Amino acid sequence: MVPTGQMAEKQAGEEPRQDHELQSWRCLVFYLCFFGFMAQLRPGESFITPYLLEYHNFTQKQVANEIIPVLPYSHLAVLVPIFLLTDYLRYKPVLVLQCLSFVCVWLLLLLGRAVIHMQLMEFFYSVTMAARIAYSSYIFSLVHPSRYQRMASYSRTAVLLGVFISSVLGQVLVTLGQIPLRILNYISLGFIVFSLGLSLFLKRPKRSLFFNRSALVHGALPCELDQMHPGPDRPEPGKLGRVLATCRDSFLVRMLRELVHDVWQPQLRLWCLWWIFNSAGYYLITYYVHVLWKITDSSVTYNGAVDAASTLLSAIMSFYAGFVKIRWALWSKLVIAVVIAIQAGLVFCMSVGNIWICYVAFVLFRGAYQFLVPIATFQIASSLSKELCALVFGINTFLATALKTSITLIVSDKRGLGLSVDSQFLVYFVYFLVLSIICFAGAGLDGLRYCRRGRHQPLPLAQELRSPLENSVQVLSGQDGGLRGLQPSAPQLLSEDDKEDSMADLRAEAKA
After folding, report:
1. In angstroms, how far is CA 116 from the centroid of its own chain?
2. Model pLDDT for residues 345-383, shown as the tens digit of each residue
């Protein structure tokens, strides 16, 4: 096929533009990953608790029962507003806010002297925790959906690498360099100020997931809910009908309707409950484990090395979890029960009084949790649309934070029981033990039901996860399969990647 002169000129103009877009995308990926890496370089973070106890001379009771409890309280208070602002302001301002909050955290650590200053420091740290959603969701608003998986992989690797290097650097400076903890915090502040400068040059997206859907960029796909449930052609309604239709068909109302329908799926409920209850216990352990280490043996300080080892193991376990293929409909509760039972045993080992056992137990505890996180993410994401998935993860995080705050108020706060840290870990051991017993009981009941039903209806084997949109297309294809002999063949629908490949073939053919 020989292209006409006009068509050849159009192709010649498109090729430099495509090369420019590819180069721009690569630069964007590199800069975003570099920012994510640098934002994690805080070598003094692993040593905040020893710094408060040794340099500020706070008592262990003040740190455990007055300062740390402010973190879950303030996290619960700022979580929803920052979640909404992240989408409404289109990510970049919240990332800048996160860096500014880190600056405030380290300025209060360096300049503050009273308990109220450290409580304010915990408030700003809770803002940085809530703002983490901005980085994880920001990357998906800048690139084509076909690049989501690679972007998620690159950004997650950059963050984990930053945490690992930060922990190793802090341990090396303290152990080998004999750097005082105060100087280590000044070094951390320098890295934070540098990451703040990087955040100012981030590209601000033109659209977001919920509030800025009307400002779609060129080539953006419609939402998955629109593709899964397209509305039929209707006659033009009256004014009242248009208002009612607008309310009924609004994006938020449709998402809530879909959520109410999907919440009855057993696997979705199971993994959401795991996310809520296990995350609450996991973060309570991470909040207080540094105080426990100081109580167990104040002469040994390998916080950075332990954080580095646990980060490395977490990355390995998260990677391995992506290759586990079993019948999750049958074995999910048993797998969850076994992992939670292991976590309960590790929490008990942390309270035995030996610092080295405590170190190893925490590394394994964190790895066990991170093993189930990607599996839970896969199981939830495979049941929901992209938009609804983000909403469910936000609800899970909020409920986990509320549960964590309630436990803190009862167990840790001086207005509650005000238990010592070693007593708190015994409570957390009982917490995980009860969860594992409940999961074992549920797995046993599922096994009995499966045996009574017999093996005439075997559960499906593990399959590659698909989005609900892909599943709905597959179901429609199966329904149409029986009619293919009666109907003329229709042109096959192409995915976005297939469309790009087809266009590339047409351009190659045109050049020939």
Report:
1. 31
2. 999 999 887 899 999 999 999 999 988 888 888 787 776
